[in-house]
Task: structure prediction
Amino acid sequence: MANVLQGVGAATALSATKSIDSRKFHLPSRRSLSERKGSFLVVRSDGRRIQGSRARRAEQLITSAVATKADSSAASTASKPGHELLLFEALREGLEEEMDRDPHVCVMGEDVGHYGGSYKVTRGLADKYGDLRVLDTPIAENSFTGMGIGAAMTGLRPIVEGMNMGFLLLAFNQISNNCGMLHYTSGGQFKIPIVIRGPGGVGRQLGAEHSQRLESYFQSIPGIQMVACSTPYNAKGLMKAAIRSENPVILFEHVLLYNLKERIPDEEYICSLEEAEMVRPGEHVTILTYSRMRYHVMQAAKTLVNKGYDPEVIDIRSLKPFDLYTIGNSVKKTHRVLIVEECMRTGGIGASLTAAITENFHDYLDAPVVCLSSQDVPTPYAGTLEEWTVVQPAQIVTAVEKLCQ
Amino acid sequence: MALCMRKSAKVINHLNSNMGLVGMINLLSPWRSALFHHQEFSVTAPVAQTLGNPDADSSIKATHFSSRRFKSTKTDKQLNSLNDADDNKVYWEAHHPRILDFPGGKVRFTPEMRFISESPEERTRCYRILNDGGQLIMGSNVIQVSEELAVKMYTDMIILQTMDTLFYEAQRQGRISFYLTTIGEEAINIATAAALTIDDCVFPQYREPGVLLWRGFTLQEFANQCFGNKADYGKGRQMPIHYGSNKHNYFTVSSTIATQIPHAVGAAYSLKMDRKRACAVTFFGDGGTSEGDFHAALNFAAVMEAPVIFICRNNGWAISTPTSDQFRSDGVVVRGRAYGVRSIRVDGNDALAMYSAVQVAREMAISEHRPILIEALTYRVGHHSTSDDSTKYRPANEIEWWKLARDPVSRFRKWIESNGWWSSEAESDFRSSVREQLLHAIQVAEKVEKPPVADMFTDVYDFPPSNLHEQEKLLKETIRRHPQDYPSDVPS
Result:
């Protein structure tokens, strides 16, 4: 452990004061951990790691924890703490740990049991816990969400999986009228500790109906919390936190991020449901993003750094409520905000975030808040058209340049 | 197909010599239906080919078989017993399947094209043990009801009637904003509750306050909810009659129709996982059975083998929609079989029948882990709610008739009076006492303070987040600045 502290103190300027406290490595104080992780272990959806001086320095931080020699990839893989896994495996790990910890946790959804889930998040769980605790449901989203709510009110902690987030539109009645409301209308007598999760967002030519961004439709419902995961680390942490939360939580995953690989700690940890993640601190502009767009932003950040800009990238993670504390501090520092999202322009998360920032931090802004979102069109099937509906790194670079003039 | 037709003519000619005209007529019908229905044809076609082909080894034997086959459907067994050679048997079996394993199980084929009728010849019979005069019907198998239980059931029905009268009047006087009566359905409410235990989770629609009453909810607690005052368990957040009490295992009423049905299935799933000797019970009306949630919930419950009792109060009306416009099936009970759910139709105005049926259903649900559907036939004597005037869509004399001649409460009273457990003095004493108590409760509830403004923001989440804190501060600020624009009896 002592090696670590020295290594950290000597090598880095970016995460200086916070990292020295060793407690922060383990406790759910995610800021320092996520700072480090975010800055060097960002893996793009196509698998390439971001090369850069910052990245290499951060790698030295990890290896010096265990090995005293300089890192060679073979040795470092073996001696690095933590274990490597893909995002869907991280979700499964979080789920499994919680199911081990609390016998009330159960999963229900289409094809989650014996098939293991359409994205393999629940693979093997039915064999381990039985097919009552990992329940295959008939195709009736409104009803199995209702079932989950009834089970939650009687003491279970169900996790309802929508095979694709878009299918949960069928469950809107139960989510809005009952899930969000019953704790309130019953005067606090009945609580609903349910987690509703599933993959959403624009994939690779999945068609309009399978490319819905439900966070924009759900954000108005009172009584629910919404979080979006983007890395294996925060996927596992958010999954665990969502299960432990007494409120109904909707966890948004992204279809294209399931195969991200990252090394995560062996020790148990959870991520706070209401905190944003500082991906890359900077001085010139605050870029707020979440889920898959984080990777487009980080790719743009690389270009921007080469052009001499210093963007601060924050993965907001908590879509409802917004972490205005972290966001506010960033705005006060940089005075310029760019929001990059996958939602559509009208009524999306970006729209609400723009309103919240303008209302609360107007005096700190040197320029109007810029929001890059998808167009207000159903997602086309054709690959080229689909690419144009999603915000690309080049657009982000242009927007930052314009914002920083 | 044409080829086979020619062969079939040969067949008919061939067989003609063996059978009389009657045989011919019997022959023709499967062929005719086969013309229109391809599938039938595929079963019988091989027969024709075998017959038409003189070179087939089994042709002579096949002829024998085929003649018997056309005569009756019992030929299968006869065919097998007649066929000695195993080769021929295997050949026959392979080319003339009688049963096939489709996904979902074995199904027998039939050459007869028969559609299942959309309505049964006779409607499902209704279980009833107390006639209109309050006498036990001969031959009924009744679960014993003690005097104590019977009197409690009856007195609770009186309380329910009194509540309906006084709260309805209170709404008309403008003291509460809304009310919904249970007139005509008292037996369903009370008898069902009497047959359940406190461990059974109840998911009501909105016309079942009697269940809560039976479990011990006091008149004051009812009044508090209707007035939405500080003592209301719902903290004034819901409309009147949207009762809920976790200590009575009665889940808060949600205005949306039929959403509670899958909730009940989820609760049953939870009870099953915990191995509790209890079930979930949910109520809904005839209109609620049209909602998608009803169908999916029944389906789920059957697939999951969940211990849940679905009780449909088929009272003939969904606001102004009569059941003839709601569904065309034989009521709700037949839908149970469609989903693989055991079901029964009961006279909802017969308290003893309801009590027996629910008790047995509960036992079945818990010990066999299965859902049960109970359709309770009844009539909605009152209006849908205080926002409705049902004389607009149904004749007043129909309402009157059901109110007087088919009243479940008086029917039960006749029965307990005949047992010597009740009298008219007891009746008038009890009624006036309840009326007095309820009037008092209403007066008290009216005077109790309303919930404070802070209660508007609590329980949205377990702990209020920052945005709600902000909004609460803003609201209190606004009220402080413009007190004349806000109600004065709401404490801050």
Chain B touches chain A through 50 residues (CB under 8 Å). Residues 1-5, 15-80 of chain B have pLDDT under 50 and may be disordered.
